[in-house]
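Example record for the data management plan.
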Amino acid sequence: MPDHSHRRSFRAARGTISVALVLALSGALFAANARLTRDGDERRPQNLVDLARLEEGRTQRLTDEAVALRAQVATLLDEEARISGLQLPTPDDTERVVSAKAPVTGSGLVIRLDDAPIRGTTANVDADLLVVHQQDIQAVMNALWAGGAEAMTLMGQRVISTSAVRCIGAVLYMHGLRYSPPYTFEVIGDPDRLLAALEQDRVVSRYRDYVDAYGLGWSVSVQDNLELPAYEGPTDLAHARVPEGVEALSTSVQNASHGQTAGSRRNVDEDGA
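Corresponding structural encoding:
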């Protein structure tokens, strides 16, 4: 007779092993899913705020990498110039300040713009009138340049000729980073000229009317010892070109280049003789 009890025991054992295997695989699947979900919170943001934060962090990391790489490139170029015998002079202080490649100190102004607080008198006012807009920031920036600003920062970042600001909602974006109000300018220049430029600018005057009417933030103070950092972002130009006949290099660089060319020709003539 067939051993039915042995078969039943075998089936029971096989069923137990199958259940254990399924449970083990399920546990591994749950653990992997939890790990992916945890990591996915960083890789796949669930809303625009998280996406903006993720992109801001990525931009900052890439900026830091670019700064380090530019320093390496500068070192390699200096080494190549030394080996080739072409010794270009170091840019003077004026050139470094104008190009924003040097930190600077001096007297000037600190200007702050801020959104208006929500209170009883503004509860029924159009919200668009209670916030700082892109054109307000641009107006202050343009007025300061017109007033003879020699160096400027906005939210601690050095402003250069290709700097662009744009507002999306109540957030300011510049150089790939985002900022919330209050928006702070630090500018080095003749304080009297800068103040006069702000007073005379029509767009800035219109903003100050809203300061009086709705409580938008506006403060200007004279500072004697401002310290502005150097600009560390990219300066590559994709569309701008120097017109023919216009000298793009400083006199010192041109003289060094001409001297190197003449020296090379003399060496060739001497070798040929």
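Summary line stored alongside the record: Residues 93-228 form a domain with the Alpha-Beta Plaits fold (CATH 3.30.70.1880).
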